[in-house]
Amino acid sequence: MISESSADGRVWAQLLDGILRISLEDEPAGDCLVAVFRQGIAAGWIKPSMLTLVDLTRFTGSVDWAAVRAVRTMAPWGSGPAGASRVVYVVRSSLFMTLIEVAIALFAKTQHRIFTNQAEALDWLRR
Fold first, then answer.
1. 69: helix, coil or strand?
2. For the residues 52-62, what does the mean pLDDT come to?
3. Of 44, 47, 88, 98, which one's alpha carbon is 20 to 30 angstroms from that of 14?
4. Nearest-CA neighbor of 36 among 9, 68, 12, 63?
5. DSSP code of residue 124
6. Does 3.30.750.24 match the CATH number of domain 2-126?
C-alpha cells in the first residue's frame, strides 16, 4: 500500500486482485494525490490501462484540480496494451456528479461509472 497524508487528510492506493484501489479521506492536499501516483507508477503497479476503484465516501474536501491535471499528464491513461481504462467512483450521494463529469472530460479515453455501493462497483469492473 502507498499512503500520503497531510494535516487535513490522506490518500492511499493499493493494488488488490488486479484492481487499483484509491481512497481519499477527509481533505488531503493535492500533493498527496500526485505523490501516490508517482510512487505507484515508479513501483510498476499503476499502468495506463487498468481497472480502478476510487473511493470518495470519506472525502469531505475540495478538489485540487491542478493535482488532478498533474496526474493526467503522468501517463497516457486509457491507451495501454490492455485497452481502455475502466474507473468506478464510489460516492456517498449524487452531489459528486459534477466532480465526476469533470474527471470524465479530463480522462477521455477511460470508461467511468458512479456507484454508491462498493460491491456493485467491483462487479462492474470485473465484467
1. helix
2. 93
3. 98
4. 12
5. H
6. yes
**Which residues have CB under 8 Å from 40's CB, separation 6+?**
2, 13, 15, 20, 46
Running DSSP on this structure, what letter comes out for residue 48? S
The strand pair at 9-16 and 110-115 is best described as unpaired
Q: Which three cell numbers stand for residue 29?
A: 492536499
Per DSSP, 121 falls in state H
Q: Where are the domains of the chain?
A: 2-126
Which pLDDT score, from 0 to 100, does residue 82 have?
A: 62
In 3D, which of 15, 14, 115 has the Cα closest to residue 57?
Answer: 115
pLDDT at 78: 79
Decide which of 47 and 83 is more confident. 47
